[in-house]
Design brief:
- With 153 residues, the chain is mostly helical.
- The protein is 70% helix and 0% strand.
- Helix 2 runs antiparallel to helix 4, helix 3 crosses helix 4 and helix 4 crosses helix 5.
- The chain is elongated and about 55 Å long.
């Protein structure tokens, strides 16, 4: 009887649990949270240009409208800034969500590097759209004339 394993002692030692048993429900909740961040980030990111009408532009207009309480001239510039912020937020949410969903082990993330990457990709996207409008590849004259905006381009 002295050589027989003690079952009660083995079950009470948490270090002997299998990795899947250690993760349990918090691992599943982390994957669900990551999936939600991934989907929401995709909806806000520049990768989903077709969702701009439903997500990014209302957020950008709301931000510009709030800024216009301080000065009427801030509506358009703050709307552009709000659009950039929503795109950067989308890219960051996608990155955080992808880490939660696809990586099993914790990894030290560099928030500064991720933020600079998000800003650079949003700026590149914005410059590409500006170039398409400037070189008349996208004609916004009909849209702008219906809005009665006096814009320089």
């Amino acid at each position: 009887m002295q050589n027989a394993p003690q079952v009660g002692h083995q079950l009470s030692n948490p270090e002997q649990l299998q990795p899947s048993e250690k993760k349990g429900l918090p691992g599943v909740l982390k994957k669900i949270r990551g999936g939600l961040f991934l989907v929401l980030g995709f909806m806000l990111s520049p990768l989903s240009w077709w969702n701009d009408l439903f997500f990014n532009l209302p957020i950008a207009y709301g931000f510009g409208y709030l800024c216009s309480f301080f000065s009427d001239d801030l509506l358009l510039p703050c709307s552009i800034v709000g659009y950039w912020i929503s795109n950067i937020l989308g890219i960051l949410l996608m990155q955080f969500g992808a880490v939660d969903v696809f990586q099993d082990r914790p990894k030290n993330s560099n928030l500064k590097k991720e933020l600079l990457s998000a800003i650079a990709s949003s700026a590149a996207y914005s410059l590409a759209i500006f170039a398409l409008i400037h070189f008349k590849i996208i004609d916004t004259a009909a849209i702008l004339s219906s809005l009665n905006l006096n814009l320089p381009f």
